[in-house]
Design a protein that fits this description.
Distance between the termini: 37 Å
Main location: cytoplasm
Shape: globular
Largest sheet: 7 strands, mixed
Number of strands: 18
Function: Catalyzes the oxidation of L-aspartate to iminoaspartate.
InterPro entries: FAD-dep_OxRdtase_2_FAD-bd, FAD/NAD-bd_sf, Fum_R/Succ_DH_flav-like_C_sf, Fum_Rdtase/Succ_DH_flav-like_C, NadB, Succ_DH/fumarate_Rdtase_cat_sf
Protein name: L-aspartate oxidase
Radius of gyration: 23 Å
Strand content: 15-25%
GO molecular function, one term: L-aspartate oxidase activity
Number of helices: 14
């Protein structure tokens, strides 16, 4: 018999956005946070950079807004940018109050004795405005917020719980469209539970796992985007996927980024024969923006049919390399690469999903009672290219805004009861897991080849043809066999891949992260790509 659980708020995802939402809700509410695997499996834990915010007296809200609009290639929604930046300082203040150990400023190094924490500067920013905890900001934030959540008796952390689908009034044949909860697979028992709730928040991260090479953890499967689409929510700008130009290429090295600072300090990109290639693509060579460098590497790999290129800083003194890049040096040594003597094999890797579920400034989706926050959402902040360190800021600002909106309505919303159990009567155990593994590999490979850094109309048509065949096969499999995490993720990933392809096919220009050889110019008018599901009620 399927188990039923009730919560005031169900949060699907245990990263920065989900934990922040939980901590900004009052202690008398019963809150459940779902994590597909272990709690630290999300992208937050691995974020190296920091959080962008207007914190220094010499910086201004206008400057941060302008920098973001420029980076977004004309596609940011200015209202969302302004909302995020205007609330940046209070979000950082809240993190400091929680005890996040941000790197402090040496008071003797500043004339004005101003802000107590060290601020760094990253690509696209005109001021020092990135507050950070050394080069492991995400881990510091995650550990701090998790400890706070664990100390709250009203918050239940459910590890190894995978959300399958949202339960809505319309899906149950009831009048209205409200989200009433979700069906959730408990991986340890193998049973599907029914979770009913007043409010549900999708905080599941992005969809970079749709690509063969990614800097993201295995959990980044677009689950929230897929569930929201099936429930009737619009999605926006899914053609914009940010690629980090240099990810370590090694069969055992999953998701390890080689920081851009390595190129900033003189690292050179080379072909297998030792020849530099960046000067042929951009006068700034290795110091060109991320998307330019990623496109150049992708071009050379496709032109020569090679698996990777090489990033070489071995011409610098060994002690300089070890003192500036201790983490990279140590990690590469684990794989037998001494960067003081040899170049590093690198490939571009899918890094951040700029589009997602359409939401307003309170994280509200098209479905009453359903919110989306963090990388799952499309707020309009990032436009056609995310600016460094704005993504964590978005998590905190929108999670806090969502908490406020939920509280305003809480007294008027009754807890749903008598939701039907998951029907598993027609399914059997599968002994064909090889099909899931094969489809997973095929999907990620053709997305990399056809819907990657450089696109053409023909490549997109090929991808669309293949993803349709995959979706038919996956849906048949899903109808006949018991659900598993692998099957749920594959189903979601294939759906989001289809949405990405459809979005890319609609954009007849090159803008920001969407670069197509068939339409190399940017159109004079910037428009969002909004896809509307068949179940959308307007």
């Amino acid at each position: 018999m399927s188990q039923h659980f009730q919560h005031d708020v169900l949060i699907i995802g245990s990263g920065a956005a989900g934990l922040t939402l939980a901590l900004n809700l009052p202690p008398q509410l019963h809150i459940a946070i779902l994590s597909k695997g272990e709690l630290s499996n999300g992208s937050t834990f691995w974020a190296q950079g920091g959080v962008a915010a207007v914190l220094d007296d010499t910086d201004t809200i206008e400057s941060h807004v302008e920098d973001t609009l420029i980076a977004g290639a004309g596609l940011c929604r200015e209202e969302a940018v302004r909302f995020t930046v205007e609330h940046s300082r209070e979000a950082i203040q809240w993190l400091i109050e929680q005890g996040v150990p941000f790197t402090r400023e040496d008071p003797t190094a500043r004339d004005d004795g101003g802000f107590a924490f060290h601020l760094t500067r990253e690509g696209g920013h005109s001021h020092r405005r990135i507050i950070h905890a050394a080069d492991a900001t995400g881990a510091a934030i995650f550990k701090t917020l998790l400890a706070k959540v664990q100390a709250r008796p009203n918050i239940e952390l459910l590890e190894q719980h995978v959300a399958i689908d949202l339960i809505t009034e319309s899906k149950l044949g009831l009048p209205g469209r409200r989200c009433l909860g979700a069906y959730v697979l408990d991986r340890q028992s193998g049973e599907v539970e029914t979770h009913s709730t007043r409010f549900t928040a999708l905080a599941c991260g992005g969809a970079a796992k749709v690509y063969l090479y990614t800097s993201n953890p295995d959990s980044a499967c677009g689950d929230g985007i897929a569930m929201a689409w099936r429930a009737g929510c619009r999605v926006g700008n899914l053609e914009f996927n940010q690629f980090h130009p240099t990810c370590l290429y090694h069969p055992q090295a999953k998701n390890f980024l080689i920081t851009e600072a390595l190129r900033g300090e003189g690292g050179l990109l080379k072909l297998p024969n030792g020849e530099r290639f960046m000067p042929r693509f951009d006068p700034r060579a290795e110091l060109a923006p991320r998307d330019v460098v990623a496109r150049a590497i992708d071009h050379e790999m496709k032109r020569l049919g090679i698996d990777c290129v090489y990033l070489d800083i071995s011409h610098k003194p060994a002690d300089f390399i070890q003192s500036h890049f201790p983490t990279v040096h140590e990690r590469c040594l684990d794989f037998g690469i001494d960067i003081t003597r040899a170049p590093i094999p690198v490939v571009p890797a899918a890094h951040y999903t700029c589009g997602g579920v359409v939401v307003d400034n309170h994280g509200r989706t098209d479905i009453p009672g359903l919110y989306a926050i963090g990388e799952t959402s499309f707020t309009g902040l990032h436009g056609a290219n995310r600016m460094a360190s704005n993504s964590l800021l978005e998590c905190f600002v929108y999670a806090r805004s969502t908490a406020f909106d939920m509280l305003e309505q809480m007294a008027d919303i009754e807890l749903p009861s008598n939701l039907p159990s998951w029907d598993a009567s027609q399914v059997t155990d599968s002994d064909e897991d090889v099909i899931i593994a094969h489809n997973w590999d095929e999907l990620r490979r053709f997305m990399w080849d056809y819907v990657g850094i450089v696109r053409t109309s023909k490549r997109l048509q090929r991808a669309q043809h293949r993803v349709k065949l995959l979706l038919d096969e996956i849906n048949e499999f899903y109808s006949n066999y018991k659900v598993s995490r692998d099957l749920i993720e594959l189903r979601n990933l294939a759906l989001v891949a289809d949405l990405m392809i459809r979005s890319a096919m609609q954009r007849h220009e090159s803008r920001g992260l969407h670069y197509t050889l068939d339409y190399p110019d940017m159109l004079p008018e910037a428009r969002d790509t909004i896809l509307v599901p068949p179940t959308y009620a307007g």
